[in-house]
Specification:
The chain is α/β, with parallel strands linked by helices and 350 residues long. The protein is 40% helix and 12% strand. The protein is built from 13 helices and 9 strands. Bound molecules: zinc ion (ZN). Zinc ion binds next to loops.
């Protein structure tokens, strides 16, 4: 089995924010020609066999607080105003559009599963527009359809900070995922409106209470695009066995996150993390969700990842670890791309 022969659909990256914040007069060109910084750009996407995925739009706080190497309990990020979130959302959508235009057919903005499959077949990068934290959406949801029209097909109601729709998990280790309040009435209305528009609802950053609130109101499969197993790494961002079982029962999806601090049993942010830990998470999640409900959700450009992967061009090393763990061709096909296609079809319709 050749580990370069598995097309990879990725559940989550923060690449658009990286280029949005970059000091450059030609950000789209930098992405398309490659800047060699961070984890993702088009040449490294091609080199690693990545064919598409969820490109997050994350509106940062003005002074973003991210964990240091040894800081497993950073301060909880403060709330962000709707106006400033919407401003950066629009800026990143404009950058996305510039990338698609300048790519001249090499990048395809996808609104349906047919568009996604066609892009894969044509060798175009299949781009799904995702919002990470719904601060830009007005509490009465009056601008949600506008963003749907601009291509929005996946949305996380909360990032790891509080907003009008609910609360996200602060980064804590060790910690239970039960870190605070669940969905507000506005949050429940947002989930229902996403169901109506068939926008995927991403549960990766939501509190445990919020997760079960979504279970109560949603009619869609449960999806956590970039989270790991709490039984192996007791980080607040990871999913309990009960949550993983619920994801499997609804035919949903969990994407393996490569962030070392969410992978390691000791919670350390350590680039020396080996492939064995990623395989353990995959095996645990498969045991609880079933082999149709587990995929990949890198967190490229949003987290410190193991040096054996390094960046998107190192994805074949992760596939090689699956081959070595005797996952078999059928299961590797499911994990690398088929399961994401299945859950997109189930969520978006055909
Ligand atoms: Zn995230």
């Amino acid at each position: 089995m050749n580990s370069n022969n598995f097309p990879i659909i990725d559940g989550h990256n923060d690449t658009l924010l990286r280029f949005f914040e970059k000091e450059s007069a030609q950000k789209a060109k930098d992405f398309l020609e490659g800047d060699g910084l961070g984890h993702l750009d088009l040449p490294r996407i091609r080199a690693g066999g990545m064919v598409g995925g969820f490109f997050a739009i994350f509106s940062p706080n003005s002074h973003e607080i991210l964990p240091d190497d040894d800081d497993r309990n950073p301060p909880y990020a403060g709330a962000l105003s709707q106006k400033s979130a919407e401003q950066s959302l629009q800026g990143m959508l404009d950058l996305r559009d510039a990338i698609v235009t300048e790519a001249k057919g090499e990048v395809a903005l996808c609104h349906t599963v047919t568009e996604f499959s066609n892009a894969m077949a044509a060798g175009e990068l299949a781009w799904i527009t995702h919002i990470e934290g719904a601060e830009a959406i007005k509490p009465d949801l009056s601008n949600l359809e506008h963003y749907y029209a601009r291509g929005l097909r996946s949305l996380g109601p909360v990032w790891s900070r509080p907003n009008v729709f609910g609360a996200g998990v602060p980064f804590r280790f060790p910690s239970s995922p039960d870190t605070g309040r669940g969905l507000t009435p506005e949050g429940e209305a947002l989930v229902k409106e996403c169901n109506r528009l068939r926008i995927m609802v991403d549960l990766s950053h939501i509190t445990e209470r919020g997760f079960w609130d979504v279970v109560r109101v949603t009619n869609a499969p449960l999806v956590a695009t970039h989270s790991n197993a709490h039984a192996i790494s007791a980080h607040s961002r990871n999913l309990t066995d009960e949550q993983l079982r619920a994801i499997g029962e609804t035919g949903g999806m969990v994407g393996l996150n490569y962030a070392t601090g969410f992978l390691r049993p000791d919670g350390q942010w350590s680039p020396g993390t080996g492939a064995d830990v990623l395989i353990r998470h995959l095996e645990h999640m498969i045991a609880l969700c079933g082999e149709d409900c587990v995929g990949l959700g890198s967190d490229f450009d949003g987290a410190r990842i193991p040096s054996f992967i390094k960046d998107a061009s190192g994805l074949p090393a992760l596939v090689a670890a699956m081959v070595e763990a005797e996952f078999g061709e059928e299961l590797i096909t499911k994990i690398t791309h088929r399961n994401w296609l299945r859950v997109l079809e189930k969520t978006w319709g055909s």
